[in-house]
Design brief:
The chain is of the alpha/beta class. Among the domains are: 99 residues, Methylthiotransferase, N-terminal domain (Rossmann fold, 3-Layer(aba) Sandwich), CATH 3.40.50.12160; 51 residues, Beta Barrel (OB fold (Dihydrolipoamide Acetyltransferase, E2P)). Helices cover 34% and strands 23% of the residues. The strands form five sheets. It has a five-stranded mixed barrel. It has a four-stranded parallel beta sheet with strand order 1-2-3-4, with helices on both faces. A three-stranded parallel beta sheet has the order 5-8-9. Helix 6 packs across helix 7, helix 8 runs parallel beside helix 10 and helix 11 packs parallel to helix 12. It is globular, with a radius of gyration of 22 Å. The protein binds iron/sulfur cluster. The site of iron/sulfur cluster has 8 residues, from helix 5.
C-alpha cells in the first residue's frame, strides 16, 4: 500500500505537508496515511474525525499518523480512534527522523525529481505566536513566536525554486512577528529584502496574512518599490468594531485598518486587498456587525475570508456570552454576499482591460494581484499570459488570451 499525506487547515500546514511529503518520498516510507490536522474551528475537527473513520472503514489495517494542531491539543482523544497509530508533535513534525521507522527495509533513498503539481510553494519563516487573541486556539497548539534563521529560510526558498515552483508565499502562524525574537532589528521587511537580494531568480514573492498593526514604513517601502513582491495583501482584520476588537485582544483598531489599507494602496495602486473576518464573536450586536460590513468598503477590501465564530476549548472567548447560532449563520451569509459583491466590483474594473496572469492548469490563471481569471483555451501551468477581460462571473474574470510572456 502506498503512503498519503492529507492536509487540513492553513497555508502553514500545507507548507509543512509539502516538506513531509519530500521526506516520505526520499525515504521510500510506505504503508501509512499521515494527516496534518487543524483545530481552528469545530468544523475542522468534525471533518478530521469523519476522515479517520472513513479511512478505517475502507481498510481495517490502515496505519494513520496524526500531526498538527488538533492532535497536538488532544492526543489521547485521537489515539483512542481506530487506525490511529501515532501522534507526532508540532515541534517534531519536520524532523526527518520521525519518518525513518516507516521506511520500507532495503529501500534505497530515491532522489527522483517530481514535477510540481502546484504553482505556489509555501515557505515557512516562523512558528508560534506571542499574542493572546481570545478566540485563537492556534497559539495554544503552536507555542511562542520562533523566527527561523535567515540562512535556513534562504535554503528552503532555493529548494522550492529547484522543484520548479513559480511563486513563493511567505507563511507562518504570524509572519508579521518575524524577527521579534532575533537580535539585530530583524523584521518581516528585512527577511523579504534578504530573499530578494540573494535570489535574483525569485521573480514572484507573495505574503500570507499580515497584522494591520504591523504595516510599517519599512514594509510600505518594499510594497512601493519592489515589483517582485506581488500586489496582493491580506490582513487579519477580524472585525470592524473597536469594542469587539478590544474583546478579541487584537492589537489594532478599525482606524489602523483604514490607515494600513490606504497606505498600501497609495504605495501600490494596483494592489488588491484581502482580509479575514470573524462573524458572531461573543457579545457582537447588530450595530457592531454593521461596523464590520462598513469597514469592507471603507478599507477597499476585495478578497474576503469569512469565518463563523465557534468557541474553541481552552480559549477565553469560549467562556464569553455567545451569540445565537442562527444569528451567526445569518450574519455569515450576509457577509459572504457582500464579499461576492465587492469582488465582482473589483473584477469589473478589468473588463475590456488587459491583465497579466500566470496559468494554474486548465483554463485557469491568477493575476499578480491574486484575482481569478478563466480563459477560453487551455493555459500552460506556470506560464505568464496577457489576457483581456470580457465579463465577470462567479468571482472570476472571463477573458481571452491576447499574448504570452
Ligand atoms: S495573532 Fe492572534 S489569532 Fe493570530 S496566531 Fe497569534 S494569537 Fe492567534
Amino acid at each position: 500500500m502506498s503512503q498519503r499525506v492529507i492536509t487540513f487547515g492553513c497555508r502553514l500546514n500545507a507548507c509543512e505537508s509539502d516538506i513531509i511529503s519530500d521526506f516520505v518520498r526520499e525515504l521510500g516510507a510506505d504503508d501509512f496515511v499521515l494527516i496534518n490536522t487543524c483545530a481552528v474551528t469545530r468544523e475542522a475537527e468534525r471533518k478530521l474525525c469523519q476522515t479517520i473513520r472513513k479511512l478505517h472503514r475502507e481498510d481495517k489495517n490502515v496505519r494513520i499518523i496524526l500531526t498538527g494542531c488538533a492532535s497536538e491539543l488532544n492526543p489521547q482523544r485521537y489515539l483512542r480512534m481506530n487506525g490511529v497509530m501515532e501522534v507526532i508533535s508540532n515541534e517534531r513534525k519536520l524532523f526527518r527522523s520521525e519518518y525513518l521507522k516507516y521506511s520500507a527495509p532495503g529501500t534505497e533513498e530515491t532522489k527522483e525529481k517530481t514535477p510540481p503539481r502546484k504553482i505556489r510553494g509555501f515557505l515557512q519563516i516562523q512558528n508560534g505566536c506571542d499574542q493572546k487573541c481570545t478566540y485563537c486556539v492556534v497559539r495554544l497548539a503552536r507555542g511562542p513566536n520562533v523566527s527561523f534563521p535567515k540562512d535556513e529560510i534562504l535554503l528552503q526558498a532555493q529548494r522550492l525554486l529547484s522543484k520548479g515552483y513559480v511563486e513563493i508565499v511567505l507563511t507562518g502562524v504570524n509572519i508579521s512577528a518575524y524577527g521579534r525574537d532575533l537580535a539585530g532589528g530583524e523584521n518581516l521587511a528585512s527577511i523579504i529584502r534578504h530573499l530578494l537580494k540573494n535570489i535574483p531568480q525569485l521573480e514572484r514573492l507573495r505574503l500570507s496574512s499580515l497584522d494591520p498593526a504591523d504595516v510599517d514604513e519599512s514594509l510600505l517601502e518594499l510594497i512601493k518599490n519592489e515589483e517582485r513582491l506581488m500586489p496582493h495583501f491580506h490582513q487579519s482584520v477580524q472585525s470592524g468594531d473597536d469594542l469587539i476588537l478590544k474583546r478579541m485582544l487584537r492589537r489594532h483598531r478599525r482606524q489602523q485598518v483604514l490607515e494600513a489599507s490606504h497606505k498600501i494602496l497609495e504605495a501600490r495602486p494596483e494592489a488588491v486587498l484581502g482580509a479575514d473576518m470573524i462573524v458572531g464573536f461573543p457579545t457582537e450586536t447588530e450595530p457592531m456587525f454593521e461596523n464590520t460590513k462598513r469597514i469592507i468598503r471603507e478599507a477597499r477590501l476585495s478578497l474576503l475570508h469569512v469565518f463563523s465564530f465557534s468557541g474553541r476549548p481552552g480559549t477565553a472567548a469560549a467562556a464569553m456570552p455567545q451569540v445565537e447560532r442562527n444569528v451567526i449563520r445569518r450574519r455569515a451569509k450576509e457577509l459572504k454576499l457582500l464579499a461576492r459583491e465587492v469582488l465582482a466590483e473589483k473584477l469589473s474594473q478589468y473588463v475590456d482591460q488587459k491583465v497579466m496572469a500566470v496559468g494554474e492548469g486548465g483554463e485557469n490563471a491568477r493575476t499578480d494581484s491574486f484575482l481569478a481569471v478563466r480563459a477560453k483555451e487551455k493555459l500552460a501551468a506556470g506560464q505568464k499570459y496577457l489576457l483581456r477581460g470580457e465579463e465577470v462571473a462567479n468571482g472570476v474574470l472571463l477573458s481571452v488570451v491576447v499574448g504570452k510572456q
